[in-house]
């Protein structure tokens, strides 16, 4: 491979803070807000033009239930609940039944962008949008701590110095570039490109999924499901009906191919419906500015959360997040999805074929109604002692990942990382040495449900 030498140069330190968060998804922003609310000086770096990640730029306007599977106990609160309540006051949220396994809230993603801006502003966070994390500064041998990261934006290249760093990039970019041990699952769940349409009501008499299955092969579409929601208080519909197989979202060429392929599939679906649905008058209103990524790179941590931990409702002394969303495996090697529930039942859904229902374990007198995520899964095994991750790159096996990856769960890992960062600063301890009882108490005091 041909190479070029990039000359060394001194870079300006463009900002100094107590806590630096890389990645402005809801997970990353919630980390920043919780740290700022505890008095830390916080800076957040986001490569896109807004906060929210999958909920905004990927247009996935669904968050799942904040309650256990029976709807009897609230297991998630904090900034997830606060944000939905704020949107509710603007008529931008529809609430669903507490036990609905597929959705707890549907919301207006555009209103969410503005609300997240307000939350960040109120917290006094220093914000860098349109700013790309480039590399970590070299570690100082004497301390083993990360001192700064290099970023680049319209103003050029610069350094941000901080005392604690939170990797909320989604792909563990900071951890990987620090040389921390990372891995990819053998089965990376495929990505989806959503779209928003006006005129969806003109399809009321049509079976959209059946039309896509029937005519999709002629348009080069893989077998897939179609689902979606109306944007609250509007006639605009968010559709998720694409399936992008075989890409690694942490690879630039793969990600480029996936983005273009996702848009091609959206157009093909629109063409099918316009051609074959009587009375169809669809108008494509919006495309996502990023793919909906289900899985990418993971870190190695002191503990890997397993599918058995999730499905058995295993309790952890260092639990910092809870969830009740089912195991939801989108297959790469065959059409369809497998859903596995805490009550021991399992469903396999294949497009155009009757679903099958079975049991993954024998019936029991009592079933778990939620599961937990331990703090240890956020700590890079061989990383600097002032770096923590938040989001889907945590250390989980494929079955556990299929359940915990959804936004209401990952949002909590962000809040935990933000509070842990402040606790580490206050006690002058490495993140891996924190008293987890104190961490949990601080989370609860800030509104978390643990």
Automatic annotation (TrEMBL):
Per the record, a Pfam family? FAD_oxidored
Give the keywords, sorted.
Answer: 4Fe-4S, Iron, Iron-sulfur, Metal-binding, Oxidoreductase
Q: Which Gene3D superfamilies match?
A: FAD/NAD(P)-binding domain
The residues forming a coiled coil are none
- SUPFAM superfamilies attached here? FAD/NAD(P)-binding domain (SSF51905)
- List the molecular function annotations (GO) for this entry: 4 iron, 4 sulfur cluster binding; metal ion binding; oxidoreductase activity
Q: Does the keyword Transcription regulation apply?
A: no
From the Swiss-Prot or TrEMBL record, give the protein name: FAD-dependent oxidoreductase
In which organism is this protein found? Rariglobus hedericola
């Amino acid at each position: 491979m041909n190479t070029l030498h990039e000359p060394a140069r001194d870079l300006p330190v463009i900002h100094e803070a107590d806590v630096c968060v890389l990645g402005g998804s809801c997970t990353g922003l919630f980390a920043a807000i919780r740290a700022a609310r505890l008095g830390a000086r916080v800076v957040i770096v986001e490569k896109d033009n807004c906060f929210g990640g999958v909920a905004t730029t990927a247009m996935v306007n669904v968050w799942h239930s904040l309650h256990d599977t029976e709807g009897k106990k609230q297991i998630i609160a904090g900034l997830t609940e606060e944000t939905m309540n704020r949107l509710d006051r603007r008529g931008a949220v529809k609430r669903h039944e507490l036990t609905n396994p597929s959705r707890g809230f549907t919301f207006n993603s555009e209103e969410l962008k503005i609300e997240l801006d307000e939350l960040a502003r109120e917290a006094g966070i220093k914000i860098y949008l349109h700013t790309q994390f480039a590399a970590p500064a070299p570690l100082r041998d004497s301390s083993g701590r990360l001192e700064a990261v290099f970023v680049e934006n319209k103003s050029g290249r610069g350094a941000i110095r901080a005392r604690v760093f939170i990797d909320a990039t989604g792909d563990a970019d900071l951890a990987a570039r620090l040389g921390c041990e990372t891995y990819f699952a053998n089965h990376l769940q495929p990505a989806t490109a959503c779209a928003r349409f006006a005129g969806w009501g003109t399809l009321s008499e049509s079976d959209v999924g059946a039309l896509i299955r029937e005519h999709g092969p002629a348009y080069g579409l893989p077998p897939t499901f179609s689902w979606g929601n109306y944007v609250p208080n509007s006639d605009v519909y968010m559709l998720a009906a694409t399936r992008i197989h075989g890409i690694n979202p942490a690879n630039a060429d793969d990600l480029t191919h996936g983005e273009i392929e996702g848009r091609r599939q959206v157009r093909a679906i629109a063409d099918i419906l316009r051609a074959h649905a009587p009375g169809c008058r669809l108008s494509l209103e919006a495309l996502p500015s990023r793919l909906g990524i289900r899985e990418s790179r993971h870190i190695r941590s002191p503990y890997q959360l397993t599918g058995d931990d999730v499905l058995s409702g295993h309790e952890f002394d260092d639990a910092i997040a809870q969830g009740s969303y089912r195991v939801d495996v989108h297959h790469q090697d065959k059409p369809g999805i497998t859903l596995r529930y805490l009550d021991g039942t399992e469903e396999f859904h294949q497009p155009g074929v009757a679903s099958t229902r079975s049991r993954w374990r024998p019936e029991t007198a009592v079933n778990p109604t939620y599961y937990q995520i331990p703090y240890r899964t956020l700590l890079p095994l061989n990383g600097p002692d002032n770096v923590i991750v938040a989001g889907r790159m945590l250390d989980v096996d494929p079955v556990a990942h299929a359940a915990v990856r959804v936004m209401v769960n990952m949002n909590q890992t962000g809040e935990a990382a933000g509070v842990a960062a402040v606790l580490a600063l206050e006690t002058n301890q490495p993140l891996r040495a924190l008293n987890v009882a104190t961490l949990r108490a601080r989370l609860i005091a800030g509104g978390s449900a643990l």
